[in-house]
Amino acid sequence: MSSVSRAAWLYIAAVAVAVAAVVSPRLPGAMHAAMAGTAHPAPAISWWVTLGVLMALFLVCDSTPTQLGARQSAWSPSSSATLAAVVLLGPVGAAMVGAVSVLRPRRKLLLAERVFNGAMYALSGYLAGWAFVALHGAVGLPRIAEFPAILWPFTVAAVVHVLANQGLLWGMLQLIGGDGRPRRRIGLESSLPLLLVSDLGYAALGLVIAALWSLMGPSAAALVLVPLFVARWAMGQFAEQQRAYAATMAALCQAVETKDFYTRGHSDRVSRGSGMIARQIGMRADRAEAIRFAGMLHDVGKLGVPTKVLQKTGVLTEEEYAAIQLHPMRGLEIVREIGFLNEALTGIMHHHERIDGRGYPMGFAGDEIPEFARIIAVADAFDSMTSTRSYRQARRIDDAVDELRKGSGTQFDPALVDAFVAALRRDGWQLPVSPPEPLDREMVTAQDHDDPTAPLRVVETF
Amino acid sequence: MTTRQPAERWASWQALDSGRLLLLAAAGMLVVAGLAQTAAVKVQQPVTAVAFGCLIAFGELLRLSLPGNREAAPIATTGALAYALLLHVAKQDGNVPPHVPALQVIAVTAVGMTLGALPHIAAGRSAGLTGMASRLVAVGFVAFIFRPFATSEVLNAHRNWWIALSAMAVTAALGWLVEAVIGALIRADDLGARFSVALWDEMRVLLPLGAAVGASAVITVFAAEVMGLSELAVFIGPLLVTQVAFRRYAGIRATYLQTVRALARVTEVGGYVESGHSRRVSRLAVAVGQELGMPEHDLLDLEYAALMHDIGQLALPDPIPGGATVLVSAADQRRIAELGSDVIRQAGVLDKVAELVRCQNWPARGHDPEPPVGSRIIRAANAFDDLVGGSTDRDRSAAALERLRLDTAAEYDAGVVEALSEVAGRRLASRL
Fold first, then answer.
1. Nearest to B241 among A201, A241, A242 (CB)
2. Neighbours of B154 (CB within 10 A)
3. pTM surpassing 0.90?
4. What does the pLDDT average to over B329-339?
5. Could you say which of A51, B76, B173, B280 is the most buried, measured as most Cβ atoms within 10 Å of its Cβ?
């Protein structure tokens, strides 16, 4: 959310006004009920204490949420505080607890974000409370006699809260892209089901907090913090390990590339290009992530090709060509043991197949070629053409696109070429930094096996 | 992670050493006593028993594998612990304090665990007897301590909830300690690690989960006083979320290791080193580290560094003949190590590993600064593997060790070489 468009501001204002409109007329009533002690068996003062403690719990839960994926929502157990407020304080109290999100103690939050978060949590808290009361859930300290009848209104309230929350957030994400530009489509991130389930799970904790409250008062909030913090710790560790993992993978791929001066950064760019195509054709998020890894690893098998073959300038013998043709299999051999890759493996193995069946290693044609491989093939060839090689300068992007179009239907999948070109128009392409002249001792590829405009020359034998 | 090799399963069954047998026997005796007593005296509060039994079975179904190949069943442990610590369970017609004896807790836990383990066995996974036994013993320990006081006036007075809370916290902590000690004993036995180091590792890994399980059990007990048994149905939500968080964490850790293992093989496929070299060196290095009493997080760094110790060779124009780095000049070795270290450092998160790789061929003595222990271990293990390779020949191994010993004045660390010969000796013995 680097900049906030007018539409987004209008949306934020609409949510805020909706909150004010539903909550403010009921505020005096709730205050009065609290003062009179009707909504609460204990003295009026305890209504405010409860509110304060739940607000604090909300802020603690929400202080350092764990970012999951690219989505701007994060995994946070704060819904437990709101739902506890629904039971203990009713709709207005729940809205007030949610509104405290404005004070979220995090830096780098824009005013617009703060206002939106506060309004969103307040509105969804109010709606949950409204649903709870509408289904005859009793507001106040839960009593033994109310169980298990209270479960039904509470469950509905929890579902309403989660849906309202995610719905409002989804609306916001439609208006604001990660880079400030409007997005046409936001794919469902793989983390969304997890977010929904975890929100619901923590909403259930709200009822447990309310029950504990009737036994031990505000200390209930402290007791539930222990498992909450542990869960958050585990989630934080997960995110950290995931980042470490991606970084390690990238570093190791670079190690493979150091063997060849000109192809540095190739796997990283193919990874990005494959990701662009995947997003353009609306691929599911977990598959899109897998293909980024596949793009990263697609040429790992080149390590198994003798350096003198990679560097040869003249015509290749059949044996040498066979050695080059083996590299997808070599790559597969290396990464086969990485359990989660599964579909990515097919992409690595078949990235040199051609739609007309004249590729290698299997000679698959058309739809026989796995989708991952067809995607990588496009990104791979494009990056090769737009990079400088020892025997030619880098091509301009438009020329490379023309070449892709020329190969469309024979070498490449036409639909994927179109998708790539569209993605290119939208996102642009980061060209490799044009390399300075290689040092004498450094290695240079004389022929690029990925370059569709300069096919490898192999001795013809009849 | 998805499929376990059959060979590994064999190994875990064959490893029924005396420590495991003792544990299984103790657990078995508890179960027999629990079932006999419960059958003889009729089940107290049968509905509660069934509800907790179901929770335990469900939790056992959702086992979790933690870093370091540890098995845990947090939801089952929470259920069993809560049942052992149970005070009142709210009923519409007033509270009836449960007179649940400790042996009934054990019986219910055992039945629940067994039911939950059945689908694992049906799916062809290992039954996980050791893990179940250690969890059962820990729960039994808690139950024997706490059950006699569970009906006391002091603990059950609502005004005194904090006394009950403290008592539960202390008992649960003791139970956690029992489980950690059992786990450490078994690991020390399995891996040849020192008990004190193993216990420290065990406590470190189990602390977050143990805290969550203990607090959740206490919450369950208190909330059940107000909500009755419907509490179990509600509380399963947050428990599941916590479990999912842990599962994802453990999953990515496993994937990480798998990936480093796989990618470390690029040097083998490229013909830079002999096939299987990286993996053999890493196994040997980890075994030596354990022998020297290194804690688990250092062992992980050591394993990564040993797997990637030859990665710098990728920058060489052509593979060294035979891949044996001991045979090239010291200056070249050093250059390869630095190149590899630079590659690893680029990841930004493995700086310790990069350091181990960088110092891997510094002489153990006379070098300033001194190389870290991990680097000395990799140096010795690498030299040993270059000389012996995958061979299991006793004479060849002895000759290689002799050669390393001769160089302990300067090149190799004497302690490391001794540990290495211990490990190599044990391996040969186990192969006979």
1. A201
2. 10
3. no
4. 82
5. B76
